[in-house]
Amino acid sequence: MNNDAMIEYWNGEAGQKWVDQSNRLDTMLAPFADQVLDAAAIQSGERALDVGCGAGVLTLGATERAGGETGSLGVDVSAPLLDLARKRASEAGSPATFERADASTFTVEDKLDLMISRFGVMFFEEPDTAFANIRAQIRSGGRMAFMCWQALPMNDWAFAPFQAALPLLKQAPPTPDPTAPGPFAFADKDRVAGLMADAGWRDVSIEPFTTQMTLPGGDVETSARFMLQLGPLSRLIAEQDLDPQAILTAVIDRLSSSVQADGQVAMASACWLVRAKA
């Protein structure tokens, strides 16, 4: 199995951007992390395997919910994000641990009680094989709970800025393979159910979770600048040598219709909450 492209991506500029914006990202994604932890129903003393743990917010939360004595384990391919996760654990006095590894091949000596993830599982080249390997690290009778995005058009927070920029592109981006590794690779609910079953997970449950996502920043311009720093727009601007100010103006105009009374931008998001037993 070859996940080299994603490993290179998350250890380069993208990984450092996520480190730089980690506090804002964690605030933006807090409702989803809380939903995963609630669904996981972690019991005292249990250890979770957090796949694609990033800067560790879910790993630390799982450790706390288990009583704070036994540390959960976060696994990620991004060295910059893991450095931040370890720093956070040290500052919090948490026994959570973190390891740089590809979850599709990673193994543990002592099996864990459950697997969790907040948007960290959609990047495998061979997801069925990866999830079979992840299941092998969970004890018999253990469980999983993870969150993944529904289709891009269902997520206005990501789709609207992209639409705003389209008229300014020098050439339209190619139509992506909907199953290719990436944020929206698990948009098809039936495909996800099939992948989990093929990987040996039982009693698979997939439920929608929709909410308004508040973008970082206290005003529309700050939110628009944030959207240009992370995600597909930043790559398109670099690849096509676009005028970032023109893109920013277009995104500000599009986001203005979603400004709330407090000046922040809130937009629709749609996810799948996936649960299963090992």
SSE layout:
Blueprint: H1 4-10, H2 13-20, H3 22-28, H4 30-40, E1 48-51, H5 57-65, E2 73-76, H6 79-92, E3 97-100, E4 112-118, H7 127-136, E5 138-149, H8 156-165, H9 189-198, E6 202-214, H10 220-229, H11 232-239, H12 244-255, E7 266-277
Parallel strand pairs: 1-2, 1-4, 2-3, 4-5
Antiparallel strand pairs: 5-7, 6-7
List keywords for this structure.
single chain; 278 residues; Rossmann fold; 7-stranded mixed sheet; 7 strands
Tell me the radius of gyration: 19 Å
Taken from the alpha-carbon principal axes, the silhouette is globular
Q: According to CATH, what is the topology?
A: Rossmann fold
* Helical residue percent band: 40-55%
Output mean pLDDT.
Answer: 94
Intertermini distance: 22 Å
CATH class: Alpha Beta
Q: Proportion of β residues?
A: 15-25%
Q: Write the CATH homologous superfamily.
A: Vaccinia Virus protein VP39
CATH architecture: 3-Layer(aba) Sandwich
Query: Biggest β-sheet: count, sense, barrel?
Result: 7 strands, mixed
Order of helices and strands: HHHHEHEHEEHEHHEHHHE
Please give the number of β-strands.
Answer: 7
The strand order across the widest sheet is: 3-2-1-4-5-7-6
Task: Give the helix/strand class.
Answer: alpha/beta
By DSSP (H or I, 4+ residues per run), the number of helices equals 12
